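Translate sequence into structure tokens.
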Amino acid sequence: MAFTVRKAEQRDLESLGRLGAMLVQVHYAFDPQRFLAPFDGIEHGYASFLGSRLASPDDCIFVAEQNSAVIGYVFAALEPASWKELRGPAGFIHDVVVAEDARRSGVATSLVQTAIAWMREHNAPRVILGTAALNEGAQKLFHRLGFRNTMIEMTREIEP
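Result follows.
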């Protein structure tokens, strides 16, 4: 499967919104109490959010494109040290999304590697990401790319 990876542009926002909405739906299916519920207009909301990051020097969004169609994206950012999280400065991969019909073809690997290269160029000393506990496919990918488990998020609902 031939595809290219490039920096996202304004013209990609509609596709990014659709893929972001898909990300919300997948996570909501994993745990509807923890993750944001899909809603009418979520594509526009996600596109607007990602669009607000396009010009930021501390954020990057790369898209994978095949035959002029966006088939995936990665959203990453540089973040300063955090006392709250007990860590130094880091690059964060916030989103990695690949269209269902383009999965298992190297798209996610290329997107993550491109984001890591961008973070290296911007002197990030490490890369951190999170993945849904039930998303075993993503965890296998991230382990294969050299990530290690460091934290486990736990959630408890507060009953009225």
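Note: The chain has four helices and five strands.
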